[in-house]
């Protein structure tokens, strides 16, 4: 196989994470519902989304529990940067954490879809 044809193939395995695309996360990325776009809808001026603290705590808990070391997670996030490059931080960090958890079997795509539906239902009820 020539070096040219290797470059054309999509890389699916990184050193720290499976780089294959996850349909659910791709669809979320395509929705383009970033905090910068959603905050004005609720007249919120805080530049940090309210869920950022929970995201950071989740990462810390996964590391402390031995499920996902913080350094490994950061390396995996770096590898996934090209997969989720269309979305800004901290949304990118959230999508990459979900990607890592699904690809490592810590969470199924179906479980994640159920949780997303539950959160959306609560938001729409407001």
Description:
The chain has 126 residues and is an all-alpha fold. The chain has a domain of 76 residues. The protein is built from seven helices and no strands. It is globular. It starts with a helix and ends with a helix. The relative contact order is 0.14.
Spell out the key features of this protein.
126 residues; mainly alpha; 7 helices; 58% helix; 0% strand; disordered N terminus; CN_hydtase_beta_C; Elect_transpt_acc-like_dom_sf; Nitrile hydratase subunit beta
pLDDT under 50 segments (min length 5)? 1-9
Decide which structural class fits the backbone.
mainly alpha
Name the overall outline.
globular
How many DSSP helices?
A: 7
Beta-strand residue fraction: under 5%
Report the average pLDDT across residues. Answer: 87
Q: Specify Rg, calculated over alpha carbons.
A: 16 Å
The helicity comes to 55-70%
Main sheet overview: none
User: Which sequence of SSEs, written as H and E, runs from N to C?
Assistant: HHHHHHH
The first-to-last residue Cα distance is: 56 Å
- Work out the number of β strands: 0
């Amino acid at each position: 196989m020539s070096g040219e044809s290797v470059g054309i193939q999509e890389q699916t395995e990184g050193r720290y994470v499976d780089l294959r695309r996850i349909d659910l996360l791709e669809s979320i990325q395509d929705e383009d519902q970033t905090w910068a776009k959603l905050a004005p809808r609720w007249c919120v001026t805080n530049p940090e989304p309210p869920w950022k603290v929970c995201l950071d705590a989740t990462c810390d808990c996964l590391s402390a529990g031995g499920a996902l070391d913080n350094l490994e997670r950061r390396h995996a996030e770096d590898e996934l940067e090209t997969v989720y490059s269309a979305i800004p931080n901290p949304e990118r960090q959230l999508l990459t954490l979900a990607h890592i958890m699904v690809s490592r079997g810590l969470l199924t795509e179906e479980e994640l879809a159920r949780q997303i539906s539950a959160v959306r239902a609560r938001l729409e009820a407001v």
